[in-house]
Amino acid sequence: MSEVDRRGWLAGLMAGAAGAAAMKGGRAEAGEGRRGPKIYPNEHFYKPDGSFDVEKAKAAYYEMMEYYNYPIPPRLRTDEFWTMDFGLGKFTEVGMAGIFWINDHRGFFGHEIYLLPGQMIPEHQHLSTENGPAKMEGWHVRYGWCYVFGMTGKSTPEMVNRIPPSHRKIARARVAKKLLPGECAVLDQPCNWHFMVAGPQGAIVSEYATWHDNAGLRFTHPDVKFG
Predict the structure, then answer these.
(1) Pick the CATH number of 35-219 from 3.30.470.20, 2.60.120.10, 3.90.420.10, 3.40.640.10
(2) Which residues, other chains included, contact 90 with Cβ-Cβ below 8 Å and sequence gap of 6+?
């Protein structure tokens, strides 16, 4: 092969590799050039009798997963994948979906959190129970982004408007931190009040924690129902 041919061959090879990398990067950055997952009005998630429509809610989360090219294994198509509006009737404001990948009494817990755009997990805390100490947890954003509100650190009054109206006056956690994909945060102190609010493109968050005992779960909002 002549020097000229060799250079041409190498240039073509490098261009092909760059093109493949660009395509791969495009897949990794799912949703690039798009505004975000489809947004539905709150009434979309309720039946004519006013009851929460679980199937429509799950369908919206599946759409968000597909938007992000998030893998949907068969287990996420079962009843282990749950969603709720916490009894407030404001699913687009306060609600979530999740799956407990593992919840082991020996002390470890793996949970995936799914939030539609702007959705909030209601403010809550974890107390110790006769079964074990108060749950501790950390969060790892996989897709989208969110605000995590806690009680430790410098207050962020400028973030009050990020709190949905149902909780704006009663929320005790006033220290907000924005988490982007790949970033993590932890619950600094046991029993601290905390909550999470998704950004405008929703959020998929992995939670790493100690064992979760529903008996130790408490909510700030008096009308919240869990389970």
Answers:
(1) 2.60.120.10
(2) 42, 164, 166
- Give this prediction's pTM: 0.84
Q: Using an 8 Å Cβ cutoff, are 215 and 125 in contact?
A: no
Alpha helices in the chain (DSSP H): 3-28, 54-67
Question: Residue 2 burial (CB < 10 Å; 0-12/13-18/19+)?
Answer: exposed
What's the chain's length in residues? Answer: 227
Query: Which tops the pLDDT comparison, 3 or 138?
Result: 138
- Phi-psi region for residue 67, left (φ > 0), alpha (ψ -120 to 50) or beta? alpha
Residue 33 has pLDDT above 70, yes or no: no
Question: 């240039």: which residue's tokens?
Answer: 11
Tell me: the pLDDT tens digits for 82-135?
999 999 999 999 999 999 999 998 999 999 999 999 999 999 999 999 999 999
User: Pairing relation of β-strands 120-126 and 96-104?
Assistant: unpaired
